[in-house]
Amino acid sequence: GICLSGESAIYKRGKTNINSEDNPNVITGSVIVAKPKADCTNNFAIYIGKQKGNDAAFNPFSPMYTSIENMAFVHAGDEEGGLRQCIKTYDSTELNHVIFYDFQQAVCFADNYIDGKKVTNCTFYCYKSFGEKLYAFDMGSLGDALLFEHNAIHSGTYNHGLRLNRCGGGSINSNIINADILIKYCKGITFEANHIEQGHKVEILSSQAALQSNYLWLGVQPSVQIYGDKWGHGSVVSMDGNVFRFYDSRFFSNHTDSNKEGYYLNTDKYKIDYDVAIDKYSTLSINNLYRYWMGQSFGTMGTTGIKIGKMDIDWNNSSNPETAFAAFDDFNNLSYAL
Fold first, then answer.
1. Other beta carbons less than 10 A from residue 223's beta carbon
2. DSSP characters for 24-83?
3. H-type helices in the chain, by residue range?
């Protein structure tokens, strides 16, 4: 493997979230810019461990190790051009202190058996639509000893956040993930001390995971959704000390529909039915779970009970299954006192 190392990468945002000539977002330091031509057919700017002319690993199960650190990658093309995604890797790879700006996707690990995937101190920004929403960090399928730590993913408007598939042990901790998260067919996953804004969700599909001390802003959908697949392989999940943050109309009255990211739009629909949803195949154990009403003050500790919804998934259309939620009244009617 190789080590691709820059000196630094610094991001300075303009006065608003909208990048323009009058109000630019600035990235300085060690920067690589992808500016593809209109007829470019490559999906990724960088390939690691790939066979030439073949979408397969050069050396499967390789102990070779590649690291990229202290630099920024910037997509300077338009939404219709190629090279929309930044890195596709087929080998064990570490990324540390890397900024990804305006790519459709930062990193995609191939569906090979890859141990030791490591992404730390990285930041992803995307301020333009490419049509299809991809996961900013797709950690591929299979492999052990995964670490995803101290990263930031913004802002979930044009992208999803993080995807794990068939991981045999991994830690996702101390991240800001303002986009949807999917944990699928995994075992031995710790999801701890993460901060998730804008009402995005954590989906746990046919997996075993422990969620501890996470900070989730509630939205119009259940923040944590736990379910099995169409064959009835349910999830086993424990939740301890997670915070479900509730904003009320006093907060939203200070914001207008002019916010271009869409977070404060349609605030009349900001109605929370359930904090957590679970299907009939899955198992959930909970401890110290509360909804926190904070109003305008971060220090407010107005705790109330959470609400759990029953999740019913119609798998007849497997490509786009329909999901319905119903109240778990036996729990919800007493949750405030538990």
1. 23
2. --EEEESEEEE---TT---SEEEEESBPTTSSSBSSTT---EEEEEEEEEEE-S-TTSS-
3. 249-252, 329-332
Task: Judge contact between 185 and 234, C-beta under 8 A.
Answer: no
Measure the CA–CA gap between 256 and 237, rounded to whole angstroms. 38
Does the pLDDT value for residue 20 go beyond 70? no
- Cα–Cα distance between 49 and 1 in angstroms, integer? 9
Rounded Cα distance, 39 and 228, in Å? 42
pLDDT, position 83: 82
Q: Could you give the CA distance from residue 314 to residue 327 in angstroms, rounded to a whole number?
A: 17
Distance in angstroms (rounded) separating the CA atoms of residues 167 and 116: 11
DSSP symbol at 250 = H
- Residue 267 is classified by DSSP as G
**Contact, 233 vs 208, CB < 8 A?**
no
Distance, in Å, from the CA atom of 78 to the CA atom of 36, rounded to the nearest integer, reads 8
Provide the 3-class DSSP secondary structure of residue 304. Answer: strand
Q: How confident is the model at residue 112 (pLDDT cuts 50, 70, 90)?
A: confident
Model pLDDT, residue 5: 92
**DSSP bridge pairs for 110:** none
Q: How far apart are CA 333 and CA 82, in angstroms?
A: 53
- C-alpha span between 279 and 281 (Å, rounded): 6
Residue 29 to residues 6, 12, 33, 289: CA-CA distances in angstroms? 8, 11, 12, 43
Q: Helices in 132-289 by DSSP H: which ranges?
A: 249-252
Q: State phi, psi for 72 to the nearest 5 degrees.
A: -130, 145
Q: Which residue has the higher pLDDT, 293 or 32?
A: 32
Average pLDDT score, the chain: 85
Write down how long the chain is. 338
Q: Which of 172, 238, 242 is nearest to 209 (CA)?
A: 238
What is d(CA 70, CA 43) in angstroms, rounded to the nearest whole number?
Answer: 24
